[in-house]
Amino acid sequence: MNLPARFSPTLARAAVWAALALLCACGEPSATGTSASVAGGARELTIASNPAGTHSYTVAGGLARVLQEEQGVRATIRPFSGSSVYQPMLHRGEIALGLNTGIDSYVAYRGLPPYENAMPNLRLLGMMFPLRIMYMVRADSGLRSIEDLRGRRVVVTFRANAALEQLHRGILATGGLTVDDVESMTVAGLPEAMRMLAEGRADAVPTGMNTALSMQVDSTLPGGVRYLTMGQDEARLPETMPGVRIVTALPDETTSGVEGPTRVSWVPDYLNTGIHMSDDDAYRIIRTIHENWEELRSAYVQMRTTPAEAVAPGDNLHPYHPGAVRYFREAGLWTEAHEANQARVLAQ
Questions:
Q1: Which of 15, 146, 270, 272 could form a disulfide with 212 if both were Cys (CB 3.0 to 4.6 A apart)?
Q2: Is 337 exposed, middle or buried, given 0-12, 13-18 or 19+ CB atoms closer than 10 A?
């Protein structure tokens, strides 16, 4: 399998422009392919992702490559402005696969805000990578911790990824802040937020670390960017956001904006489908991805910290697809804890 070269900061700064060029060349893909058969019949598959320049888009490209090369499936990436746009499409069976955060998956499945109705048809295939999400500021701003955002212009809401608002509010709460303590801003999505930071129209934007978009901003600003560290009251975040952890990010050669140990949120990003997908297709898709996991890890920095066994977490808050359950049982990754958790989430 021919995978792209190992990630580097230089390549990342140009990645968003290359991705946009690819979109222009390929055009807008169709939403068909929800009944794709990986072994025969209709051999077409659509993978929904966040916009070009995000981790979701990059990883979707890797998954599409694997499925196409290993199974002969015509796998197409369909980027949207945010996952709140395509979650309902997964639920309705209009798109075969989508990459969604654990937060968005949970609130969509349960019908919690910002969604008005539950989406019980959503099903999990596996965990693809973790997102480390934190507020990013200009390095010359003097801002270093969440407490420093009081009175500042802070992006809180992405209209295209509305479920993340609760995470952003939770991060602010670790510094003793609410949206009333900052100049709360609403934007369409991450690309707009990044432009506002670069142009000096926002003081802080929440983003996944090491995205091509964030590294592009880092390369264009004098002095670059800085990620803030979590506030003093860290316990507030996991209390309000199930499935979210707090981890320490350390400076390394692939990360810009981290000057020392920095406490940030950790959010799983899942490959989801719907009950409309056949058990056999779900089985073959996750088996193909899992069997090629080490090659994916070596090619995509987003997946590098995720060992093969972590593809099947046991603390997910929406249910697995039966085809994924079947594969993980065969692979020896399905435990009694997985079985109990699956029964619990299905009963909710």
A1: 15
A2: exposed
List, in order of start, the domains of the chain with CATH numbers. 9-131+268-347 (3.40.190.10), 132-267 (3.40.190.10)
Whole-Å CA distances, 101 to 148, 197, 265, 306: 27, 24, 12, 15
pLDDT at residue number 218: 93
Q: Are strands 44-49 and 97-101 parallel, antiparallel or unpaired?
A: parallel
Is the distance from CB of 129 to CB of 55 less than 8 angstroms? yes
State how beta strands 153-158 and 245-249 pair.
Answer: unpaired
Rounded to 10 degrees, the C-alpha dihedral 91/95/97/102 comes to -40
Q: Note whether 210 and 255 are within 8 A (CB).
A: yes
Angle between helices 190-198 and 212-220 (to 10 degrees): 10
CA angle 346, 122, 190 (to 5 degrees): 130
Q: Kindly report, residue by residue over 234-292, the tens digit of the pLDDT.
A: 999 988 888 899 999 999 887 889 999 999 999 999 999 999 999 999 999 999 999 99
